[in-house]
Amino acid sequence: MEKPFFVVDGIDGCGKSSQSILLAKALIEKNIDTIQVRDPGGTSISEDIRSVILNPKHELMSSKTELYLYTASRVQMIEEILKPARKLGKVIVSDRYISSTIAYQSFGGEMPLEFVENVIENSVNDFMPTHTFIIDLPLELAQTRLDIILDRMELKDIDFKKRVREGFLYQAKKENTTLLDGSKSIEEVHLKIMEIVNESI
Question: For 71-92, how does the pLDDT look when each residue is reduced to its tens digit (9 = 90+)?
Answer without folding.
Answer: 999 999 999 999 999 999 999 9
